[in-house]
């Protein structure tokens, strides 16, 4: 559904498909196009899961991971270098590494299996490495080959993207969980063997969302990549920042407002959440964030839903249900009818 014109490399997996025609043998750990074919469906599935996670994590933010934001490469169109771009790179890169690693553990690839390199060694107080650890080393190496290859430039943007790709991979590694099994007389657990497992991908997404809020802005002069000295300065700057952190070069635009040039829809018409369901703090404040703080009113829309309910089983053999009507109230941002004086929107927090 995301496929655009084949000649434009917009989303990571269309980039991947496109690269298959131009890929050279040397780019590979293994042997060229054959290796490419083995991993490409997994890479594409991983990029897709990164995009889905982005949409989940930003569902109640002013910027909600719109398709336009997902162009990852230098091919085609406008490239931004803000905090949101940073997140898109990190989550896509994480998705690809995660999926390759999971595929490996499931035995989907002939040349890869559990990471048992440390098995038998002492891991810590009272436990030994053992069992089947997810092979993140494999996922990391292969995903790097695919995702980082999309950055061909030598400017600050390319350096930023590579840094954030790495941050995504670090997030996968950093959220892995130690799982242990007890040994000893009747489960006395005198010794344990432990292995490392991937978390749910949701956890990687949540971790990167925190990194997004804490992203660091790097100040680099325009055109710094045009000379050898400038490229050196870029490399030094990025090297001084931990690859666990997301970095960006530009400030974000005002996502309250529609801006066709930037492909932004603004928040008018967006749904937000109020009471009712068990909402987290971030969701509970969504109406203020999306509507109120953007100078928009919250419009209540009531609707009725009809569904089957109170179903009873009659001997034998029929099920009879009643039709229940349920009122649902939804909230949307809309342009205020009577703008109140002086309460224009405040830019600032996203
Ligand atoms: C890897 O996993 C993804 C998602 O779980 C799946 O769609 C894909 O087919 C798998 N790849 C291989 C080579 O089995
Ligand atoms: C859209 O964004 C661009 C770049 O930030 C800006 O120059 C332009 O004024 C904006 N347009 C509108 C209609 O806000």
From TrEMBL:
Function noted in UniProt: Ligand for members of the frizzled family of seven transmembrane receptors.
Biological source species: Loxodonta africana
Protein's name in the database: Protein Wnt
One annotated Gene Ontology cellular component of this protein: extracellular space
Leader sequence residues: 1-24
Matches recorded under PANTHER family: PROTEIN WNT-8B, WNT RELATED
Keyword Flavoprotein among record annotations: no
Keywords recorded for this protein, A-Z: Developmental protein, Disulfide bond, Extracellular matrix, Glycoprotein, Lipoprotein, Secreted, Signal, Wnt signaling pathway
Stated family: Belongs to the Wnt family.
Database matches in PROSITE patterns: WNT1
Keyword Ribonucleoprotein: no
Any single biological process term in GO: canonical Wnt signaling pathway
Tree of life domain: Eukaryota
């Amino acid at each position: 559904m995301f496929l655009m014109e084949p000649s434009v490399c917009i989303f990571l997996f269309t980039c991947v498909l496109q690269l298959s025609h131009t890929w050279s043998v040397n780019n590979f750990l293994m042997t060229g196009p054959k290796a490419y074919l083995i991993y490409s469906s997994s890479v594409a599935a991983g990029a897709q899961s990164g995009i889905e996670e982005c949409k989940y994590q930003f569902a109640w933010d002013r910027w909600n991971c719109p398709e336009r934001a997902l162009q990852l490469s230098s091919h085609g169109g406008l490239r931004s270098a803000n905090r949101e771009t940073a997140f898109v790179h990190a989550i896509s890169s994480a998705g690809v590494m995660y999926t390759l690693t999971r595929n490996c553990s499931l035995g989907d690839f002939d040349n890869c299996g559990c990471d048992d390199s440390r098995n038998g060694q002492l891991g810590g107080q009272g436990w030994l490495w053992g069992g089947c650890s997810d092979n993140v080393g494999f996922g990391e190496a292969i995903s790097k080959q695919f995702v980082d290859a999309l950055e061909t430039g030598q400017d600050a943007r390319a350096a930023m993207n590579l840094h954030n790709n790495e941050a995504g991979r670090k997030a996968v590694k950093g959220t892995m969980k130690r799982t242990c099994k007890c040994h000893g007389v009747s489960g006395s657990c005198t010794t344990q063997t432990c292995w490392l497992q991937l978390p749910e991908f949701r956890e990687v997404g949540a971790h990167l969302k925190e990194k997004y809020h804490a992203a660091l802005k790097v100040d680099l002069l325009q055109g710094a990549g045009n000379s050898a000295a400038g490229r050196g300065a870029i490399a030094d700057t990025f090297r001084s920042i931990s690859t666990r952190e997301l970095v960006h070069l530009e400030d974000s635009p005002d996502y309250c407002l529609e801006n066709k040039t930037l492909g932004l829809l603004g928040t008018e018409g967006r749904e937000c959440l109020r009471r009712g369901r068990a909402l987290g703090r971030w969701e509970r404040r969504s109406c203020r964030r999306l509507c109120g703080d953007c100078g928009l009113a919250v419009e209540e829309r009531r609707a009725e839903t009809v569904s089957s309910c109170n179903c009873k089983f009659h001997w034998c053999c029929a099920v009879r249900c009643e039709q229940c009507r349920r009122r649902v109230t939804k909230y949307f941002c809309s342009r205020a009818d009577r703008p109140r004086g002086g309460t224009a929107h405040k830019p600032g927090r996203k």
